[in-house]
């Protein structure tokens, strides 16, 4: 008696491989999403001499176009109408759209002006900001390790301020805008899927993005049609480059625990940091290294707390059963 796929066995002479577990698929999708986001600085460098406003305006418009294609193919317009017809969901996603465009503008500005290292710092700090939002807005109580991590993170910002000779505003704007974006999106919960959410967020911003593109064109500052076909298609590809990792993330989040997603998210700033100091050649003074090491220590405490909490919860579940 044979098992598995008979056709596979006959053609190869070996039993068919078992299907990958959902957890393994979740990790693969997560690595794809966070790895993709980590590589984004290289893409934005290719778009020069376009400035950050033009790049983000195009990103918004082409994201809407790409999302419309996906929704049409997937027959998802009913979900769009349902979400847009709910004033609370529409309002929440509009706020999320404003926060994410602030994040995008700051991030692209950082990359195109030689501040990718500081941008990566922002995403390293982001988990600490998320914890702070939980305390300030949701009145959550922190565990001792979490308080220690927040304190160490604050010390890192002080060190970085001394290193840069100014407040690292790029890192802080990125951390707080993305942390706030995550909080606002959490208010929507599972009521809308990733592509519906992105579609509405960018659709709300599209009139402003189109206005910015027209204004830059009239002022002779637009590069979309003046730098050749290659540049045009690179700009147009921003829709795909924005939507695909988000879809990967959605596929990962539906298969992994919050702990798993939390651990994978550190991949993005690590890749950004490596690209900044190796490929882009951004300088790292001794003071900056010290600041980053302190941030990494804070993240280490958060990860340790996350794992301890996860194991404790898993143990309690086993005892309950």
UniProtKB/TrEMBL annotation:
Bilayer topology: Multi-pass membrane protein
Chief location of this protein within or outside the cell: membrane
Residue span(s) of domain EamA: 26-161
Transmembrane segments: 27-48, 60-77, 89-109, 121-138, 145-161, 167-184, 204-225, 231-251, 263-283, 289-310
Alphabetical keyword list: Cell membrane, Membrane, Transmembrane, Transmembrane helix, Transport
Record region (Disordered): 1-22
Localization of this protein: Cell membrane
Signal peptide (residue range): none
Biased composition regions of type Polar residues, renumbered to the chain: 1-13
Family statement drawn from the similarity comment of this UniProt entry: Belongs to the EamA transporter family.
NCBIfam families: rarD
Protein name from the UniProt record: Chloramphenicol-sensitive protein RarD
Species the sequence originates in: Arthrobacter stackebrandtii
């Amino acid at each position: 008696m044979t098992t598995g796929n008979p056709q596979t066995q006959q053609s190869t002479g070996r039993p068919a491989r078992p299907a990958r577990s959902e957890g393994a698929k979740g990790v693969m999708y997560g690595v794809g999403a966070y790895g993709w986001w980590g590589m984004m600085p290289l893409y934005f460098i290719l778009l020069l001499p376009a400035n950050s406003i033009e790049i983000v305006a195009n990103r918004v418009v082409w994201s809407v176009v790409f999302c419309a294609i996906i929704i049409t193919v997937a027959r998802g317009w009913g979900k769009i109408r349902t979400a847009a017809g709910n004033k609370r969901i529409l309002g929440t996603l509009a706020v999320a759209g404003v926060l994410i465009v602030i994040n995008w503008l700051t991030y692209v500005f950082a990359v195109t002006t030689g501040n990718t290292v500081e941008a990566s710092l922002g995403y390293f700090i982001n988990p600490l900001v998320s914890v702070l939002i939980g305390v300030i807005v949701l009145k959550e109580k922190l565990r001792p390790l979490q308080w220690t991590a927040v304190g160490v993170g604050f010390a890192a910002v002080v060190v970085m301020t001394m290193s840069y000779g100014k407040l690292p505003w790029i890192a802080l704007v990125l951390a707080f805008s993305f942390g706030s974006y995550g909080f606002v999106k959490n208010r929507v919960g599972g009521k809308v899927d990733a592509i519906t959410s992105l579609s509405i967020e960018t659709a709300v911003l599209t009139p402003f993005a189109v206005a910015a593109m027209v204004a830059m064109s009239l002022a002779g500052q637009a590069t979309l049609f003046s730098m050749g076909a290659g540049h045009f298609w690179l700009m147009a590809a921003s829709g795909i480059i924005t939507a695909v990792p988000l879809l990967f993330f959605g596929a990962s989040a539906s298969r992994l625990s919050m702990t798993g997603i939390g651990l994978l998210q550190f991949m993005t700033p690590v890749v950004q940091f490596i690209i900044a100091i190796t490929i882009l050649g951004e300088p790292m003074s001794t003071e900056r290294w010290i600041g980053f090491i302190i941030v990494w220590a804070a993240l280490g405490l958060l990860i340790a707390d996350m794992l301890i909490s996860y194991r404790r919860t898993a143990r309690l579940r086993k005892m309950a059963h």
